[in-house]
């Protein structure tokens, strides 16, 4: 049968182009996902700064115990949005373990070297140099306050020599320090250059008293390293931290890579699974179509000698060979795409530059096997239908028109449609995350209902539009209406794919735009300060104090951006938050407080939350909210205010005091400054900015522009994924349309023989397209509009969603382009064949 | 199971076939007929008389609603779809009005298709003889699209002969051919009966085609109304004219209006 299948492939290429394209595109998408997942799985940063350590204790994730179900407790782990820390008190505990020579606390200090501003640097205490170990190349180790040792990379980049002085920036201020020596790690270079202070100075500069970033453990010579690692692990587990030993140590020193690792696993895995599902549907549809077009061939085979099993084997053989061909074409393209995407991901900060992407040696065969499995499974489902092809069909000319569909299909479609309408009401009554969830449910339900009801929708549209088509297109319109009616079943894939693209893709895509738009609008409306001092390397609290003392300044608010973890259905979810100095905050920012008072944030252990966050966590003013700060520290805070402008300012607003010791720098990101109208504080602010390196004084207008840019970056990935999905669905629609168009050679010839002119035939095809795509577009736009406005109304209180003009152009232009490419051009080509010749063509 | 008469290649016993659900239409009503080995039978009748249905049921392409069909001693009603296929492959050959061939395969591959599907190697001497008899020696590497209608029918005959089936069923084998070509095709079928002792059962409209048969059977409304030994062209035509109250429609013209026929029409 395989030989026969190969012959079918060779001779009837046209029939298989659609399946091949769908498979090859699927291989490309899945290869990208597969390689990203493989990179995430296999990434193990080479240990560098902790190379000499037997084990390292650090904390990068927060483990949360879910509610108990049937005696089992599920634990979920979320990545900490800020670097986690471990208690300094563990150092003594670890040092007491048998076989441990020393336990060394490591504090990482944010620092920039003026001599080499482009080199990423991290500061540490000198004791941690033993963990690599670093050896002194020239000069000495730092021995006094104001002395630093630099590694050779920083020394080379900044031209630093022992005995020289240089400026460094720590804690938002510039200091002159003396270079005591140049050191070199015995292993390779790490992601960041290293700079060492004395241990006492490192502890003083470190913004989190009582905590350290990591504890490195060095075993005694001859001690059982595994036993030491196990003992350390027990201590770490008891303290809720993680222990790393062996090859894992590389991860301990690179929290950004660890985050990238889990990001790639999640994003690649989730999207890959979704893509596999869609590929399955599309391949099943194209295989089904190719079977339908060759019904007579199969009936003939059945009549003269092929068992149903042999026909199925033939179809599976064809698809199996096609998926091999698709793998040959798709895998190299996918590997190219991975290189591009990983570059883009690194540019946008989703993964660090130092992250290595695997070659895909593991992913490629897995993807090929997965695509082949998906293709064969869907081909098998499509092939099962061939059992229904009766051999007698080979005998007559009469084509059997498929019925529209079974009763189960129409009933479940109607039930889903009803459910979707109920969900409109549910979404209307809900707010925040609940509304978002309900709206997404509604979107899925609508798309599914339309997919199920597609044959009847096509038929009904053909009947309803018949008078319109006749009026607009005349006789061609009359023929078009008849064709649409007869092909209601065949065009189901087109309707479904377009409704999916426009309804689903449009919603997700424009949702990103809406959220961005909301964030910018809220930030613009809510920022009532006219000026901002934006700190490049962080601003100490003194900067806010100094700004307040400028004559003409009414209020100044220091703001630090952070993320906090809030409870979400038994797990934790990171949300954007801000820490502010609440004194006079209501004169620089208007968060649109709906209950409580922002000023009450001055009290200890207080928090203000956005209304959508308050709704989903069921927090009210006066109640206590339990959440986690960015570094995983659990806090219980009293809710003092609830505000509406969560998109512009973050869902959680804290007093900066609460955040002290829980962020990397302990500094403010910017200071909002409000001045009396008519006073010019510009020169004074410019002078203030000079005092803090890297900071600039700007108008707040420019400041919100930056916010929009940041948001655009974070929505890039979502948009990319949606674009790939839409692209795939449109490919499916185009495939179906082209195959359907090319199958009409005989019909078109016949029409022309009985007197239809070429122009009329073209008009007929155009009328069909206009009706078919118009209906799909209308339904898709309606679904997108309902979902979008539900979400936007729920989260932002605005009934009319924001859709950029370019969005409309893309949706409408894309549909017209689809119609042109997939039908008008193929029909035009068919019409150039002389009709008498066309009559001889069988299919 | 009754012991079949050795002289019968195919026996149709009280076969009824009804189509449709709510208002069933009887295409065959308790038809009883035997086809003797080594004979050629023409089955005739107006459109809708049930002659194609009889052919389909007798050949195991379709299952009767009631009654049974015995081919070479095997009761078809006891067979699964797969066994039925295997029986068709080994003992039955088919020649249809048109679209007999798989377009992707060459002439030779089309002829060998049943053997290939059954996984059996054809007898090369017999194959050479069959190909020689239908006169396609020069055309073996061509594809069906490169052949004329008559040549395509001759390929179908070669395919039907290649496995040496006991019975060859033909559904309007000359319906799409001109008189000269039709005569050639009918002569080939006649030779299969006379020289190889095969059995041919042929549905046709054409009295001339029927005149090649040993026996002519006429159906009307699902029943056999005439069953006569070869009566000659003139007499066949008279019989048909008497029966056919509806205007006769050559089958070739029906096909050409697919856009006016969204629903299936069952012919014969």
Features:
heterodimer, A: 843 residues, alpha+beta, ten-stranded mixed beta sheet, six-stranded mixed barrel, 25 helices, globular, B: 268 residues, alpha/beta, six-stranded mixed beta sheet, four-stranded antiparallel beta sheet, 9 helices, 10 strands, 24% strand, disordered N terminus, disordered C terminus
Explain briefly what this protein structure is.
The complex is a heterodimer of chains A (843) and B (268). With 843 residues, chain A is of the alpha+beta class. Helices cover 55% and strands 19% of the residues of chain A.
What share of residues of chain B is helical?
25-40%
Low-confidence stretches of chain A: 397-401
Q: Cα distance, first to last residue of chain A?
A: 23 Å
Note the total helix count of chain B.
9
Largest interface: A-B, 41 and 44 residues
Structural class of chain A: alpha+beta
* Oligomeric nature of the chains: heterodimer
What does the main sheet of chain B amount to? Answer: 6 strands, mixed
Radius of gyration of chain A: 33 Å
Beginning-to-end CA distance, first to last residue of chain B: 31 Å
Low-confidence stretches of chain B: 1-5, 246-268
Give the total of beta strands of chain B: 10
Order of helices and strands of chain B: EEEHEEHEHHHEHEHEEHH
Strand content of chain A: 15-25%
Mean pLDDT of chain A: 84
- Widest sheet of chain B: strand order? 6-7-8-3-9-10
* Main β-sheet description of chain A: 10 strands, mixed
In percent terms, what proportion of residues of chain B is strand?
Answer: 15-25%
Question: What report would you give on this structure?
Answer:
The complex is a heterodimer of chains A (843) and B (268). Chain A has 843 residues and is an alpha+beta fold. Chain A is built from 25 helices and 25 strands. The two termini of chain A are 23 Å apart. With 268 residues, chain B is α/β, with parallel strands linked by helices. In chain B, 35% of the residues lie in helices and 24% in strands. Chain B has nine helices and ten strands. In chain B, strand 1 and strand 2 (25-36) form a beta hairpin. The radius of gyration of chain B is 18 Å and the shape is globular. Mean pLDDT of chain B is 80; it is low at 1-5 and 246-268.
């Amino acid at each position: 049968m395989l030989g026969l299948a190969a012959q079918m492939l060779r001779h009837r290429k046209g029939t298989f182009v659609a399946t091949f394209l769908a498979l090859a595109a699927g291989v490309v998408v899945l290869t990208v996902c597969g390689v990203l997942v493989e990179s995430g799985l296999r990434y193990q940063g080479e240990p560098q700064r902790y190379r000499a350590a037997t084990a390292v204790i650090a904390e990068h994730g927060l483990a949360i115990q879910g509610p108990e179900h049937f005696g089992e407790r599920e634990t979920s782990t979320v990545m900490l949005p800020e670097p986690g820390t471990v208690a300094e008190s563990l150092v003594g505990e670890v040092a007491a373990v048998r076989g441990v020579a020393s336990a060394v606390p490591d504090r990482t200090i944010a620092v920039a070297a003026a001599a080499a501003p482009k080199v990423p640097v991290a500061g540490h205490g000198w004791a941690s140099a033993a963990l690599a170990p670093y050896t002194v190349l020239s000069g000495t180790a730092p021995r006094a306050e104001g002395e630093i040792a630099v590694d050779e990379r920083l020394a080379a980049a900044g031209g630093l020599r022992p005995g020289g002085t240089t400026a460094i920036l720590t804690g938002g201020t510039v200091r002159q320090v003396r270079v005591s020596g140049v050191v070199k790690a015995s292993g390779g270079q790490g992601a960041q250059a290293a700079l060492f202070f004395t241990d006492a100075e490192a502890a003083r500069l470190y913004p989190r008293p009582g905590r350290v970033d990591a504890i490195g453990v060095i075993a005694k010579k001859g001690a059982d390293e595994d036993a030491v690692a196990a003992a350390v692990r027990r201590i770490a587990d008891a303290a809720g931290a993680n222990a790393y030993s062996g090859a894992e140590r590389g991860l301990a020193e690179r929290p950004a890579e660890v985050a990238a690792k889990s990001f790639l696993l999640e994003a690649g895995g989730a999207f890959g699974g979704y893509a596999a599902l869609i590929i399955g549907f599309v391949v099943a549809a194209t295989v089904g179509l190719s079977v339908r077009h060759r019904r007579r061939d199969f009936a003939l085979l059945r009549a003269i000698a092929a068992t149903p099993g042999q026909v199925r084997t033939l179809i599976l053989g064809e698809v199996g060979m096609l998926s091999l061909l698709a793998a040959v074409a798709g895998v190299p393209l996918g590997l190219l795409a991975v290189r591009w995407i990983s570059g883009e991901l690194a540019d946008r900060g989703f993964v660090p530059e130092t992250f290595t992407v695997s070659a895909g040696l593991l992913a490629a065969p897995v993807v090929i096997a997965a695509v082949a499995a998906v293709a064969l499974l869907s081909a098998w489902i499509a092939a099962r239908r061939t059992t229904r092809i009766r051999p007698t069909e080979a005998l007559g000319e009469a084509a059997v028109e498929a019925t529209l569909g079974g009763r189960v299909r129409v009933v479940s479609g109607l039930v889903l449609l009803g459910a979707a309408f109920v969900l409109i009401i549910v979404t209307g009554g809900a707010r925040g995350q609940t509304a978002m969830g309900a709206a997404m449910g509604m979107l899925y339900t609508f798309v599914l209902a339309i997919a199920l009801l597609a044959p009847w929708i096509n038929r009904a549209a053909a009947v309803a539009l018949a008078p319109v088509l006749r009026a607009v297109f005349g006789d061609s319109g009359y023929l078009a209406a008849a064709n649409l009616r007869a092909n209601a079943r065949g065009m189901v894939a087109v309707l479904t794919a377009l409704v999916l693209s426009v309804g689903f893709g449009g919603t997700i895509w424009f949702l990103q735009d809406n959220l961005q738009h909301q964030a910018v609008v809220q930030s613009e409306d809510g920022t009532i300060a006219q000026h901002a001092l934006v700190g490049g390397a962080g601003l100490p609290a003194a900067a806010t104090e100094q700004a307040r003392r400028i004559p003409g300044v009414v209020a100044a608010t220091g703001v630090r951006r952070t993320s906090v973890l809030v409870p979400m259905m038994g797990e934790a979810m990171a949300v954007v938050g801000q820490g502010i100095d609440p004194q006079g905050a209501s004169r620089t920012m208007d968060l649109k407080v709906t209950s409580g008072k922002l000023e009450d944030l001055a009290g200890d252990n207080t928090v203000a939350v956005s209304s959508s966050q308050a709704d989903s966590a069921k927090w009210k003013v006066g109640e206590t909210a339990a959440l986690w700060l960015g570094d995983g520290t659990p806090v219980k805070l009293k809710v003092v205010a609830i505000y509406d402008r969560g998109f512009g300012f973050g869902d959680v607003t804290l007093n900066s005091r609460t955040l002290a010791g829980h962020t990397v720098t302990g500094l403010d990101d910017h200071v909002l400054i409000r001045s009396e109208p008519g006073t010019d504080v510009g020169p004074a602010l410019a002078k203030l900015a000079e005092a803090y390196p890297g900071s600039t004084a700007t108008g707040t207008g420019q400041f919100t522009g930056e916010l929009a840019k940041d948001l655009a970056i974070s929505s890039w990935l979502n948009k990319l994924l949606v674009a790939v999905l839409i692209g795939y669905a449109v490919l499916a629609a185009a495939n179906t349309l082209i195959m359907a168009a090319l199958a009409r050679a005989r019909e078109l010839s016949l029409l022309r023989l009985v007197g239809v002119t070429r122009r009329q035939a073209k008009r007929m095809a155009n009328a069909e397209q206009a009706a078919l795509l118009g209906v799909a577009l209308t339904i898709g736009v309606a679904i997108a509009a309902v979902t979008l406005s539900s979400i936007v109304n729920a989260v932002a209180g605005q009934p009319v969603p924001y859709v950029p003009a370019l969005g409309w152009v893309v949706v409408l232009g894309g549909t017209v382009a689809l119609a042109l490419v997939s039908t008008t051009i193929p029909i035009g080509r068919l019409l150039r064949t002389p009709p008498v010749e066309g009559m001889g063509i069988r299919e | 199971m009754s012991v079949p008469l050795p002289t019968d290649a195919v026996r149709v016993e009280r076969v009824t076939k009804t189509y449709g659900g709510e208002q069933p239409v009887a295409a065959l009503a308790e038809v009883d007929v035997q086809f003797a080995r080594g004979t050629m039978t023409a089955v005739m009748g107006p459109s809708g008389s049930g002659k194609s249905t009889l052919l389909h049921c007798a050949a195991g392409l379709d299952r009767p609603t009631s009654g049974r069909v015995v081919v070479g001693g095997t009761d078809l009603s006891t067979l699964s779809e797969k066994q039925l296929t295997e029986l068709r492959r080994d003992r039955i050959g088919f020649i249809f009005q048109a679209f007999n061939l798989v377009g992707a395969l060459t002439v030779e591959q089309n002829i060998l298709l049943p053997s290939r599907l059954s996984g059996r190697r054809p007898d090369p001497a017999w194959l050479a003889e069959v190909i020689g008899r239908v006169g396609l020696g020069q055309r073996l590497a061509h594809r069906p699209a490169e052949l004329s209608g008559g040549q395509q029918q001759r390929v179908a005959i070669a395919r039907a002969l290649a496995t040496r089936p006991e019975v060859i069923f033909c559904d309007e084998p000359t319906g799409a051919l001109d008189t000269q070509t039709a005569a050639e095709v009918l002569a080939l079928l006649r030779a299969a009966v006379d020289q190889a002792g095969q059995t041919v059962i042929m549905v046709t409209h054409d009295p001339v085609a029927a005149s090649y048969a040993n026996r002519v059977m006429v159906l009307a409304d699902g029943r056999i109304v005439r069953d006569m030994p070869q009566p000659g062209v003139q007499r066949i035509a008279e019989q048909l004219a008497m029966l056919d109250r509806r205007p006769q429609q050559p089958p070739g013209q029906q096909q050409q209006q697919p856009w006016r026929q969204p629903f299936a029409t069952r012919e014969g």
